[in-house]
Structure formats: structure tokens, C-alpha cells
């Protein structure tokens, strides 16, 4: 099997507000749309984000009233700190500030108007993670 492209479909109440958030703050562009539907592509992500309005008949009957919840849409970036600064300055809500995890993950989260959590991750080398963890421990002491 050859997979040519990937997409994630998210059911939201207000397709337009999520589409505007992904376009304005994250650099996605509309590729297709219809009433209650938009497919957004990104030149670097290799992934489309498809937004579907709650209640659409294209959704399986048991899922029509659900909305995107309990998931985190994560993107790997080269500069998490710079990305967080840019989004904060652009007015995007930072719902989890930048942090370094001991296993070498630097991350932060923002949330779109429909509650879709978007996480940005930068993978640190083991040496970077150790140095950062030591610096944080010293700062907290």
C-alpha cells in the first residue's frame, strides 16, 4: 500500500472560526470547501486538516453530535520558542506555555476557537535536554 497524503478530520461547531485560526496563525490554506466543510493544506506539513460542522450527514450517525475533544493535534517545528513568541504576539491564546520535558521534548500548546488543542514540539538532542534541565533546576533553587 502506498499512502500519498494524510489528513485528520475534526468535527467542530463553527468551521469558519477554526479555518480562520488555522489560516491566520498556522499558515494553512483552504484547498476545498462546501457548506459545513473545509479542507486546509499546509505547504510544509504533509497533512490536511479537514473541518466538519457538527451534525453533517457525511458523519456516521453516532458521531454527528460529537465534536473534536480529547485529542491534541501536534506539529514538530524547528524553533518552538520562536513559534510560541510569534503566535503570542499575533494574539493566539497560549493555553500551555513553553516547557521542556526531561525526555528531550520542548513544547507549548494553543487552542483554536472550537477547543481544538494544537501542540508544537521541538525535539532537543540529549545534550540540549540535559543542559536545559540543569539550567531549570538551578533557576528553581
TrEMBL record:
<dbReference type="Pfam" id="PF00903">
    <property type="entry name" value="Glyoxalase"/>
</dbReference>
<protein>
    <submittedName>
        <fullName>Glyoxalase/bleomycin resistance protein/dioxygenase superfamily protein</fullName>
    </submittedName>
</protein>
<dbReference type="InterPro" id="IPR004360">
    <property type="entry name" value="Glyas_Fos-R_dOase_dom"/>
</dbReference>
<feature type="domain" description="VOC">
    <location>
        <begin position="2"/>
        <end position="123"/>
    </location>
</feature>
<dbReference type="InterPro" id="IPR029068">
    <property type="entry name" value="Glyas_Bleomycin-R_OHBP_Dase"/>
</dbReference>
<dbReference type="InterPro" id="IPR037523">
    <property type="entry name" value="VOC_core"/>
</dbReference>
Amino acid at each position: 500500500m502506498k499512502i500519498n497524503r494524510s489528513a485528520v478530520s475534526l468535527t467542530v461547531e463553527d468551521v469558519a472560526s477554526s479555518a480562520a485560526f488555522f489560516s491566520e496563525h498556522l499558515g494553512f490554506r483552504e484547498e476545498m470547501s462546501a457548506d459545513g466543510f473545509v479542507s486546509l493544506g499546509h505547504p510544509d506539513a504533509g497533512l490536511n486538516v479537514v473541518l466538519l460542522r457538527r451534525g453533517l450527514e457525511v458523519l456516521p450517525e453516532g458521531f454527528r453530535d460529537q465534536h473534536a475533544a480529547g485529542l491534541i493535534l501536534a506539529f514538530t517545528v524547528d524553533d518552538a520558542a520562536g513559534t510560541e513568541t510569534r503566535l503570542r504576539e499575533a494574539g493566539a491564546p497560549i493555553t500551555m506555555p513553553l516547557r521542556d520535558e526531561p525526555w528531550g521534548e520542548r513544547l507549548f500548546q494553543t487552542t483554536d476557537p472550537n477547543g481544538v488543542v494544537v501542540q508544537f514540539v521541538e525535539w532537543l538532542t540529549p545534550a540540549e535536554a540535559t543542559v536545559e534541565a540543569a539550567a531549570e533546576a538551578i533557576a528553581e533553587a
